[in-house]
C-alpha cells in the first residue's frame, strides 16, 4: 500500500526569502508543497520549480477563504503542515516610529497567522498535523531599530506558546521557530529608510542608513535553515521552540542565564550609542 501523500502550505514564498526555501525543501523530501505569494508578486520562480502556488494576502479574510477553497481541492480536505512565514520588517527607532506602519506590520506578522489558523485548523486537525510559526531572536533580545518588529515576533512567540497547549488535545503540534540571522531579502523595503527630520537620533543618521542597507555578517544560508526547519516540522514530537540560525546559541544561553539587561552593553557597542550620548550631553533640551 502506497504511503499517504503529505501536504505543506507555506505563506510568504516570494523570491529570495525563507518561504521559497521551505517549499523547495518540502518538495525535496516528498511532501507536496503549496506556496503563496502576494497577488501582485512575481511567481516565476515557483513556476520554474514546478511548485503549486496561489495568491494570498494574509491581511484579507476573503483572500484567505479563497486560498482555503483552492487548498481543499488540491489536498482533499486535509493539511499536514501550515507554515506561517509571511512577514515584513520595519526599521526605525522606538521614539520615531510611524504607528500606522507598525499596525500594518502587526496585521501581517501576527494577525496573519491568527487568521490562517482560524480558517485552516479543521484541515490540520483532520491530518493530525503541525503549525509552524516563524519567529525571531528579535523577539528575545533588544535589537536596536527593531523595537516594533521585535514586538510582533515576541507576540507571535507567546501566542504560539498558548496555541500549542490548546491544540495538544486535538493532536496538532505547534512549533515556534526562533530564527537567527538568515540570508534573505526581508530588508529590501527598508533600503531607503531614513530618520525623520529633527530626530534625537540624528547624530547616528549615517550609521542608521548603513544599518538599513546591511548584509548581515555570518548569516545562515536560507536553504540550510529550511532543511532543519522542515525536518523538525515533520517530527512526531518536535520541540516547542526550535532555535536555528546564526547567533541563536548565544541568544538562547544569555536569555536563560542572564538578566533583562544582559544585552544592553553589547547594544551600546554595536550601535555606537556612546556617540549619541556624547552628542546630547550638555546640548539644550528640545521643547
UniProtKB/TrEMBL annotation:
The keyword DNA-binding does not apply. One of its GO terms (biological process) is phosphatidic acid biosynthetic process. GO terms for cellular component: endoplasmic reticulum; lipid droplet. One of its GO terms (molecular function) is acylglycerone-phosphate reductase (NADP+) activity. It comes from the Eukaryota. Coiled coil: none annotated. Keywords: NADP, Oxidoreductase. It holds the Pfam family adh_short. InterPro entries: NAD(P)-bd_dom_sf, Sc_DH/Rdtase_CS, SDR_fam. Belongs to the short-chain dehydrogenases/reductases (SDR) family. This is NAD(P)-binding protein. It comes from Stachybotrys elegans.
Amino acid at each position: 500500500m502506497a504511503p499517504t501523500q503529505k501536504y505543506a502550505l507555506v505563506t510568504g514564498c516570494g523570491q529570495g526569502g525563507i518561504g521559497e526555501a521551505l517549499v523547495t525543501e518540502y518538495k525535496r523530501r516528498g511532501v507536496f508543497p503549496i506556496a503563496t505569494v502576494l497577488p501582485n508578486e512575481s511567481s516565476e520562480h515557483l513556476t520554474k520549480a514546478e511548485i503549486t502556488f496561489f495568491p494570498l494576502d494574509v491581511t484579507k479574510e476573503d483572500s484567505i477563504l479563497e486560498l482555503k477553497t483552492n487548498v481543499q481541492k488540491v489536498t482533499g480536505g486535509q493539511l499536514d503542515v501550515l507554515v506561517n512565514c509571511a512577514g515584513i520588517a520595519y526599521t526605525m527607532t522606538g521614539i520615531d516610529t510611524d504607528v500606522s506602519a507598525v499596525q500594518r506590520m502587526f496585521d501581517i506578522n501576527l494577525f496573519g497567522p491568527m487568521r490562517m489558523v482560524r480558517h485552516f485548523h479543521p484541515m490540520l486537525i483532520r491530518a493530525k498535523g503541525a503549525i509552524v510559526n516563524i519567529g525571531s531572536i528579535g523577539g528575545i533580545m533588544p535589537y536596536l531599530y527593531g523595537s516594533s518588529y521585535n514586538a510582533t515576533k515576541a507576540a507571535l512567540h507567546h501566542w504560539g506558546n498558548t496555541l500549542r497547549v490548546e491544540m495538544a488535545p486535538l493532536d496538532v503540534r505547534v512549533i515556534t521557530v526562533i530564527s537567527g540571522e538568515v540570508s534573505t531579502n526581508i530588508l529590501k523595503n527598508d533600503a531607503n529608510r531614513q530618520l525623520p527630520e529633527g530626530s534625537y537620533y540624528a547624530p547616528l543618521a549615517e550609521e542608521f542608513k548603513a544599518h538599513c542597507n546591511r548584509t548581515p555578517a555570518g548569516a545562515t544560508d536560507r536553504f540550510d535553515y529550511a532543511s532543519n526547519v522542515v525536518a523538525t516540522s515533520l517530527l512526531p514530537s518536535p520541540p516547542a521552540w526550535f532555535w536555528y540560525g546564526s547567533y541563536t546559541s548565544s541568544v538562547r544561553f544569555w536569555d536563560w542565564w542572564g538578566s533583562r539587561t544582559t544585552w544592553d552593553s553589547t547594544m551600546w557597542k554595536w550601535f555606537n550609542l556612546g556617540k549619541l550620548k556624547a552628542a546630547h550631553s550638555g546640548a539644550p533640551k528640545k521643547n
